[in-house]
Write a structure and sequence with these properties.
mainly alpha; transmembrane helix; DUF212; single chain; membrane; transmembrane; Acid phosphatase
């Protein structure tokens, strides 16, 4: 199958898995908390999105040259994805944290006033919004470095 011979695609996918696997020991080293749920989570160190797009761009650079139009497309795609991860998605996570805090304060206010009926209380109590959506810049840089290193090692060694 031609798809299985597409080295840039396979390297990008491999980097997603490598970055997700790295999240567990890095989180443990920083917090002394072992959390396997990080294997299937967004956010965290390193960014798997950044690793994938940088591996893809690096692989295309090796295969088609840094002066090719294909590399230009892949490089711009990588820059946009990394910008989105470290700015737009990160800010959305910060907003979700603020909204969660606001909901918790409102629920506490209703509890404190003890004037709320069960229907109103049920309307206030809900699941928290997901706050780990984006990345800090250091997480994006680490993901990018992961992708570039994996692709460079692959093309250098094989």
């Amino acid at each position: 199958m031609e798809l299985l011979a597409n080295e840039p695609l396979l390297l990008a996918l491999a980097c997603v898995f490598i970055a997700q696997l790295l999240k567990v020991p890095i989180h443990y080293a920083l917090t002394r908390k072992f959390d396997l749920s990080l294997l299937n989570s967004t956010g965290g160190m390193p960014s798997s999105h950044s690793a994938a797009v940088c591996a893809l761009a690096t692989a295309i650079g090796f295969e088609h040259g840094l002066d090719s139009g294909l590399f230009a497309v892949a490089a711009m795609f990588a820059v946009i994805v990394m910008y989105d991860a470290s700015h737009v998605r990160y800010e959305a996570g910060q907003h979700a944290a603020s909204i969660n805090d606001l909901y918790n304060q409102v629920a506490q206010l209703f509890d404190d006033l003890r004037t709320v009926n069960d229907a109103t209380r049920d309307a206030v109590i809900r699941e928290d919004l997901k706050t780990l959506l984006g990345h800090k810049k250091s997480e994006v840089y680490a993901g990018c470095l992961t992708g570039v290193l994996v692709s460079t090692l692959f093309y250098t060694l094989f």
